[in-house]
Amino acid sequence: DIDECAIGTHNCSTAETCYNIQGSFRCLSFECPSNYRKVSDMRCERISCFNYLDCQNTPVRITYYQLNFQTNIVVPAHIFRIGPSPAYAGDNIILTITKGNEESYFGTRRLNSYTGIVYLQRQVKEPRDFLLDVEMKLWRQGTYTTFLAKIYIFITAHAY
């Protein structure tokens, strides 16, 4: 594997981030939706919300992640862990994949009241890219707060 990102042989624009994968690379662009501001390379935070319902239903934070696996990964495979930090007694989370799982390759499970996982539940036989939106609703002291993880998953051919 040559790291095209490190040696500069990629063709990503200045607005994109080069991400190395096995045998290739991807040009990713991380934009914050309106009413969000970029607080780091991979994180957006909500600026304001209009009313109680809007505050409950729009993510307070959107974070981007990139994961790289090979087609021979053994399923079921825990690929991502999510939970509030810090976690408090009485916390409770609900995890939902809201986008990108139309073919049901992925599932979610709670490990306990404040930790959940995303797992690969079906073998991906050919190299493929996925972009999952995973929503975590945190119930804490009578209020729901929503967080959104946008997870790029690159499944590449396994090297022999």
TrEMBL record:
Gene this protein is translated from: Fbln2
Protein name: FBLN2 protein
GO molecular function, one term: calcium ion binding
Assigned keywords, A-Z: Calcium, Disulfide bond, EGF-like domain, Glycoprotein, Repeat, Secreted
A GO CC annotation given for this chain: extracellular region
Cellular localization per UniProt: Secreted
CDD domains (UniProt xref): EGF_CA
Pfam families: EGF_CA, Fibulin_C
Domain EGF-like calcium-binding stretches: 1-45
SUPFAM superfamilies: EGF/Laminin (SSF57196)
